[in-house]
Structure formats: C-alpha cells, structure tokens
Write a structure and sequence with these properties.
4-stranded mixed β-sheet, 303 residues, 31% strand, 13 strands, alpha+beta, 28% helix, single chain, phage-related protein like fold
Length: 303
Amino acid sequence: MTYKTEFIKRAVDANAFVSSDTYATVVNPKIWDTKLRAYEEKNIIFANHAEIIDFRTPGRDYTVTVDAAPTAAAAVAETDAVTIQPITNRQVVFTPTEYGTAMQTTRKELARAFFSVMDNMTKKLGYSLALQKDTLGVTAASEGATTNYVVNDVTSSDIASTDTLELADFTRSVRAIKNLYYEPVKAMICPSQEEQILNISQVQKVNEFGTRDAIDKGLVGQLFGLKIYVTHSIPVSSNQAKMLVMGQSQTGEQAMGLAIKRDPMIERDYDPFFRKESLIAHEEYNWQVLHPGAIVTVESYAA
C-alpha cells in the first residue's frame, strides 16, 4: 500500500497539469474579449442603427454597390412613347482604420483593491471604444447629409437660446427625406435637445413603448413616425448641436454603413520589471454614408 501511494505521489509530482503549463493557455483561455464586446455593445447607440457590412476577410478596401433612387414617373400623351430611364447604381468604398486604447495598473494595486481592477478597466475600455465608434459615425453622417436646416431659418452663427427644436423641424425633415424617395425612421439628438423635445406635448414618452426601452438603447419617444434617440455622441459646440434625422431605402437599407474589419478585442501584458499590468483594446472598422439623401441635419440651440 505504501508502495502504491509513493508511486502515485511521484507521478503527480512529475506530470501534474497546472495552470502555469503552456497547454493551460489552450484549455483555459482568457475571457477578456467576450467581456470587452459586451461592454462596448452596452454603450453603443448610433452604431446599432447602421447597415452592418462584414469585411472580416483579407483585403485593404471593400467596395459595395448601392442602388440609386429612380426619378419620378412623368405624364405621357396618348400617342407618345413612355420614356425609359436607366437602371443606375453607385459604389461606396470602405477603408477600415484601427482604433485602440489601453489602461494600466500595478501589481500592488491589484493585490490591494477591494474590487476587480481588471474587470473595471475592461468596462472602461469597452465604453471608450463605443464612444469613439458612435462619434465617428455621427461625424460621417453630419458631413454626408444632403439636406441641412437651421432652426427658425436663422444663420448658424446667429443661433440664440430661443432657437430650439419644434414640431415644424420634424415635419420639414420628414418631408425632405420622403421627397428623395426614402422612408424616415429615426432621429438622433443630444441631451440638451432631448429636453427641448420632451417639452413638446405631442412626443410620446418612453413608457408608452412597453418593453421597447430595454431593446432600443437611448430611445426617448416617437414623433411623426420617427423614433427619437438621445446620445452623447452628438457634439455640442458654442451652444449649438445638429439633430440627425435619418431614413432608409424602400428596401430597408440604412442610411449609414459600418464595415467591420476586425471585432473589438483585448490583449493583456505584464511587465515584471515595473510590476505593471496592462490591458490593450482595439478594433478595426470604417463608416461611410450609403444614402446621403436619407440624412437631414437640423441645427439648434444646445446648452
């Protein structure tokens, strides 16, 4: 019996599988990537309403074909031929860029903290990636919009505190999008504009959507068929901000396209000389306007 016990002990000493083994990294992988994506998705608002284009394949640029809107039908005299209009389309090129951020802590702080420092840094990194993605999308939409209005038709430099969003700004935006044969579906606003809109009695409050508030992040109400979302990614500068009213094509294609080259991922690095633990998060994507005629900006006062 002693012999058997000693034999087993020696076997364990020589061949035990422990977490420091190289093979352990295969069967016991890190889960930081999964958490990072979850934290980013939790904070994304604008990007959730884009046409997602999968570019997770080899290549530097990705070209997509977009159908161009047809012109309106024309009156035809009884003996005249009907005019044939060409079937046209156009191409949009996506060139993804890598975006990244990182955070660092010391081995001493990891041992002394009352909460998971690594988990906390992962949350912050996910938020940072989400903030950048939404900000870039909003910028691309604002710069690529076909139609641009200013509240009360004042010049941009003369916007005053009385130039706030009203019902007419929504109806005018809806009409502009429909006139170009698109279907208006959503509006993106900043928190200051949210207050202006919630003061409009016709706006439906979020609690009238039932459980929709758990599905559409940032949803605050609906007006004239437009779902209204609030996001901090709408920039406020010099007490001015641009509401984005966006539509989709008659076949349901969104105004904005987001080409994903590489999903968000996180890597971990430890420097034993300085006893520092680092988390590096990065991803690769590109925003492009697919349907500029389906985007209207409305500039108003914003605190």
